[in-house]
Each structure stands twice: as structure tokens, then as C-alpha cells.
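TA notes, week 10

Several of you asked for a full example with nothing omitted. So below is the full record: C-alpha cells for the whole chain, then the designed sequence directly under it. When grading your own attempts, check the secondary structure regions first.
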């Protein structure tokens, strides 16, 4: 979380993209970020809406979903502290091309579009970091397109839970069957089977929407290769 008492050089926001900026660039973030708490299911931007701000998750996890004409929604992106939600903003768009909402409640650092746009225009370091993160998001979306076709529901469920644990920075989070079904694009019964299998092997416990990671290595090992591939893409984007 924001720590305003530390010396400016040691300032951290809790969002890994912003914290990858050089210390000097992070000083002004104190003025540019407003930390807000999002509740689960809270919509952050509706498709087609003007982007009033850019959301940098701290310990919240947000979802980007595609809504089909029959009303079905499918997750097409998940964002935690490794990124920012409104990638369109880094591509010179001021409109949301997808609906986004909070999936796991928590804190988000909000930067106004005006400040984000100004930073993109005036700081090459900031702009490069944001663009590299967009590239990692694009890589992830492509990876998950392959994942949805080739990997089992159980592998995908383990991948998704592993990524969520990394994003919240802890081993416990709230996630309903219905939401997990949307995230994985499968029926609720398919989610139950996958979660029960992971529970039987001792990787997680899952009761009334409360997930507890019991054995992180086992959970990570149960996930498909997409877990490590996407983790690598986002960590590389911070270092180049
Ligand atoms: Zn996969």
C-alpha cells in the first residue's frame, strides 16, 4: 500500500509496474495516485465508456470481460499488481473497449487520464514501461486463447488460482463458483469438479467461495504451462 512516511527515494505504491519506475520518477506518484477500495463485482468501466482514470491494482484483482449478444460474459483478461487495467489508455484511446470489474476485492491506485496521458507524453521511461506491460498483456491474451483450446479445465483452474494467489500476495481470497465459471468460460459443474479435484490432492481448500491455497507448489505444478509463460512475460516487461 502507499507508504507516505518513507523517504521519497524508498516510496512504493504496491503496484509492480509503477514500482519498477526509477526512484526519482516515483516521487510524484504520491500526488498522482488516489488509493481506492473496490468491492467484489464493482464495475470499473463499462464497454464504450470514457476512461476517466487508469487503475493500477495493489492487492485487488480486476477482470476484463467480453459480453456476447446473448448476454454471456467470458473473461478475456485478468489484472492484478503486475499491470494496469486500461491498456487502451497507453494506445492513445480514451474509450474502454471492454467492460472491467473487480473480481477479488482490495486496493487500487487510480491515476487520472489527464495525468496518465501527460506522463506518457513527457516521460520516456514511463511510456516504455507501460507499453512493455501492454505487450505482456497481449502475449497473455494470445496464450490464453491457446490455453482455452488445448488445456483441461482442471489445469486452467489451477493456473487461474495460482495467478490470483500471486496477484493478491496471499493464500486466501474470496471467489464464488459463478465467478470462477465466468473466468474459465465453463459451466458451474465443470468448475466444481476441477476445484474438488484440486482439493482432494491437497492443493487448496474451497468452501463457500473462500479459497485457501494449502500447497502452493502443488497448485503451481497442477497448472498448465501458461502459468509460468505469463508470469515470465510480465516479469520480463519490468526489467528490459
Ligand atoms: Zn494453459
Amino acid at each position: 500500500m502507499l507508504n507516505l512516511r518513507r523517504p521519497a527515494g524508498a516510496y512504493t505504491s504496491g503496484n509492480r509496474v509503477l514500482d519498477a519506475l526509477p526512484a526519482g520518477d516515483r516521487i510524484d506518484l504520491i500526488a498522482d495516485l488516489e488509493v481506492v477500495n473496490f468491492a467484489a463485482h464493482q464495475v470499473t468501466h463499462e464497454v464504450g465508456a470514457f476512461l476517466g482514470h487508469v487503475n493500477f491494482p495493489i492487492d485487488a484483482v480486476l477482470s476484463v470481460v467480453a459480453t456476447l449478444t446473448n448476454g454471456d460474459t467470458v473473461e478475456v483478461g485478468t489484472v492484478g499488481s503486475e499491470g494496469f487495467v486500461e491498456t487502451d489508455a497507453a494506445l492513445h484511446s480514451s474509450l474502454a473497449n471492454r467492460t472491467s470489474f473487480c473480481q477479488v476485492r482490495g486496493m487500487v491506485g487510480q491515476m487520472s487520464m489527464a495525468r496518465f496521458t501527460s506522463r506518457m507524453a513527457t516521460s520516456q521511461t514511463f511510456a516504455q514501461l507501460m507499453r512493455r506491460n501492454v505487450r505482456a498483456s497481449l502475449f497473455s491474451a494470445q496464450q490464453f486463447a491457446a490455453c482455452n483450446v488445448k488445456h483441461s479445465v482442471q489445469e486452467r483452474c489451477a493456473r487461474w488460482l495460482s495467478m490470483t494467489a500471486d496477484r493478491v500476495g496471499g493464500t486466501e481470497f474470496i471467489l464464488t463458483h459463478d465467478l470462477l465459471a465466468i473466468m474459465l468460460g465453463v459451466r458451474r459443474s465443470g468448475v466444481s469438479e476441477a476445484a474438488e479435484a484440486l482439493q482432494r490432492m491437497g492443493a487448496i481448500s474451497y468452501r463457500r467461495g473462500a479459497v485457501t491455497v494449502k500447497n502452493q507448489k502443488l497448485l503451481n505444478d497442477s497448472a498448465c504451462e501458461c502459468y509460468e509463460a505469463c508470469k515470465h512475460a510480465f516479469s520480463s516487461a519490468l526489467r528490459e
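The mean pLDDT is 90. Use that as a sanity check on your answer.
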